[in-house]
Amino acid sequence: MNEFEKDPQSKNLDIADSINGFTFSFLFFIIIFAIGVTISVMH
């Protein structure tokens, strides 16, 4: 077992970090899409 596995900096579960990353990126693309739709509807 290597030394980094004994004392990880982050005690969070990987699945929680994965869900957070997916959620934030998904929301970001939804916001960009909504801005694009709004601009195209205005024209």
Automatic annotation (TrEMBL):
InterPro entries: YqzM. The chain crosses the membrane at residues 21-42. Keywords: Membrane, Transmembrane, Transmembrane helix. The keyword Transmembrane helix applies. This is YqzM family protein. It comes from Tigheibacillus jepli.
